[in-house]
Amino acid sequence: MTRDRVDLCVVGAGSAGLTAAAAAARLGARVVLIERGRMGGDCLNYGCVPSKALLAAAARAAHGGNRLGVEIAQPAVDFSTVHAHVQAAIAAIAPHDSRERFQALGVEVLEAQARFTAPDRLKVSQIAEGTSPVLREIRARRFLLACGSQPLVPPIPGLAGTPYLTNETIFDLEELPEHLLILGGGPVGCELGQAFRRLGARVTLLQGRRLLPGEDEDAVLPLRQALQEEGVIVHEHSRVSRVEWSGAGIRLTSEDGKVVAGSHLLVAAGRQPSVAELGLEAAGIAHDTRGIRVDRRLRTSNRRVFAAGDVVSDASLGAGLRFTPVAGQQAALAFANALLRWPARFDVRTVPRVTYCDPEIARVGLSEAEARNSGRSFRVFTSPFAQNDRAVTEGDTRGFVKVIADRRGRILGCVIVGRGAGDLLHPWCLALAKGMNAGEMARLLLPYPTRGEAGKRAAGQYYERLLTGWRKALLRRLVRLG
Ligand SMILES: Cc1cc2nc3c(=O)[nH]c(=O)nc-3n(C[C@H](O)[C@H](O)[C@H](O)COP(=O)(O)OP(=O)(O)OC[C@H]3O[C@@H](n4cnc5c(N)ncnc54)[C@H](O)[C@@H]3O)c2cc1C
Ligand SMILES: NC(=O)c1ccc[n+]([C@@H]2O[C@H](COP(=O)([O-])OP(=O)(O)OC[C@H]3O[C@@H](n4cnc5c(N)ncnc54)[C@H](O)[C@@H]3O)[C@@H](O)[C@H]2O)c1
Question: What is the pTM of this model?
């Protein structure tokens, strides 16, 4: 066994690990990157990329019938070609995350499993069969744990003995499921439920709470309607309590007495951190069932070790932060703290999120419900797309822009529901990051007709609110004098 000492040892080559490894190597640090699975992690192989590629194919399949006076024949879906498109999208992006690219940047990439043996070292074991089990022992000045998360499979009686799909296997299907049952109505269940329905499968979704419980109810309403109109059978407040499997198919029973049957089952019930084989105890790294505990500088309880991305415990920085840009930003901050001694802190207030269904649900900062629960005083300015000229011309007026601001107009959050909501969110991410005021957003000069004007219109209500009482009287007087 060989021994090494490096500047930074990164475990996990997903969005977080790759960001930190590239940044450190570019500044001349000696970096080892250890990955036991596929380079690119969840986002590239089992998450963002395949799900958005599938949704893109599904969007094309959804456009049959007569719309705006144009008759389009119901599209015919060739699912094996859809599967090929999804795999091609992964393959097209894969070189950016590849071993070759990172080696060219100067990173040493080990395709192996990492496990701590002491607070300052870990051993690296080969995964491939027929080779020596332990490859190397690595000592590092700093470690970054970027091990991500994996599907949470709840301990429901009958589930373990049933052949189920997760996000790690569903994109391998080369044939369309006849009837897909989905356990869970978070982003994974909603996105994949809509995609498979549009591609022609029957879909039944059971969700223990309401759909997307982290989003405001008024934001979820248009999506619920769309799913139901398109034929997804949605059972909310239906917690699955038993799973049965026979040659005839799969049957789910819920606590509220519903029984549904289908040909395939997707488990989309949340995530759990990938920490089981890391030997965290040997390194004195505190963790809980939700992940590794860190402070706002991404430091763990072991001062040499930092963590970033999906593996970070919800209890540390806040729940619901498992997104690719969060993983990337946390990794960049962890690198700055670990190697540059730059005291950078992660700011949870500016995290954006988008559920890429049709209509999209996008948000940055506080939702209205979160603002209410925070106990602070706030105002809500809403502009529906029904009053937006571009949306009217497109014949798609679903959704709205909702701005949440404090009493002085400082933006606390923005929720956008509708076509292209994710892209429409960008100026609001900037506004929140820069501490801008609704008045500043209302004064922007924007092109007409665009959907972005709905945001300006929502922000403009800030002034309408001011135009009451003595201010209104004063302005009237000025008008008369002028
Ligand atoms: C279906 C789905 C769709 C999604 N869509 C979006 C989206 O549209 N937008 C968005 O922002 N987010 C999306 N996400 C979330 C996003 O994929 C994750 O937040 C992101 O990939 C997390 O990156 P990470 O680097 O923390 O972890 P990962 O990408 O999971 O990488 C961790 C890596 O560490 C490796 N590893 C773990 N333990 C060890 C060990 N002991 N030794 C060696 N290697 C190890 C793993 O093999 C893995 O490759 C989606 C998630 C899913 C499941
Ligand atoms: N567009 C995106 O950015 C995107 C897309 C997909 C996933 N993600 C990330 O991946 C994470 C995981 O997504 P997810 O949808 O798997 O998890 P989730 O935790 O967001 O939702 C899972 C849902 O399953 C339900 N559930 C759990 N047990 C159940 C049972 N026995 N019966 C019925 N329902 C049950 C829960 O009520 C929960 O709402 C997300 O939180 C997000 O961070 C992001």
Answer: 0.96
